[in-house]
Amino acid sequence: MHAPLRTPRAPPVALEPEDLMSSVHEVMGSVLRRLAPTLEEEGITLGQFWALHLVSSLGQTSLTSVARHLSVAPPTVCGNVDQLVRSGFVSRHRSEQDRRAVELTLTPSGRRLEARIWRAVGQVMRSATDELSGEDVATATRVFRELRIRLERPSVELRREAS
């Protein structure tokens, strides 16, 4: 384990919220690039992983609900879910409440797959934060949790710039 790097702190610079979003986007892109070999070894695509994760997170859910959470049309998700079903990671079954509805659930094999991939994500993040101070990691975690809480409030509305 390396000793945390102590980089001199620059004076605070006023940044726009868009700068934060850009940084989040860049970090997520880097994490996903590092995760690509794990997904390839597991034989699934990134789209399949996100569908698998949503089925896990939502519990018994529908294809439409997974698509809504991914902000895509149901046909876009359908191929990913079909492959997850064929691979034995997700099961489809008729709803007990509405026999016309089809529900998706994770199989035990799907749970193990998801756990392996999240362990790989954890390893990527541990490697990336290894040389950061505990204080910096704690601050970043606190800020992102607070942003999530604020963004999930019903009162948060998008501001439109005056044209």
Please state roughly what percent of the residues sit in beta strands, choosing from under 5%, 5-15%, 15-25%, 25-35%, 35-45% or over 45%: 5-15%
Whole-number mean pLDDT: 86
What's the total count of β strands?
A: 2
Q: Radius of gyration over alpha carbons? A: 20 Å
How far from one another are the termini? 52 Å
Question: What string gives the helices and strands in order?
Answer: HHHHEEHH
Shape: globular
What does this protein structure show overall?
The protein has 163 residues and is mainly alpha-helical. The protein has a domain at 41-128: Arc Repressor Mutant, subunit A, CATH 1.10.10.10. It has 6 helices and 2 strands. The protein has a two-stranded antiparallel ribbon with strand order 1-2. Strand 1 (90-94) and strand 2 (102-106) form a beta hairpin. The protein is globular and about 60 Å long. The termini are far apart. The model has no long low-confidence stretch (mean pLDDT 86).
Quick synopsis:
By secondary structure, the protein is mainly alpha-helical.
SSE blueprint and pairings:
Layout: H1 17-42, H2 46-58, H3 63-70, H4 74-86, E1 90-94, E2 102-106, H5 108-129, H6 134-152
Antiparallel strand pairs: 1-2
Q: Which keywords apply here?
A:
single chain; 163 residues; mainly alpha; Arc Repressor Mutant, subunit A; two-stranded antiparallel sheet; 6 helices; 2 strands; 6% strand
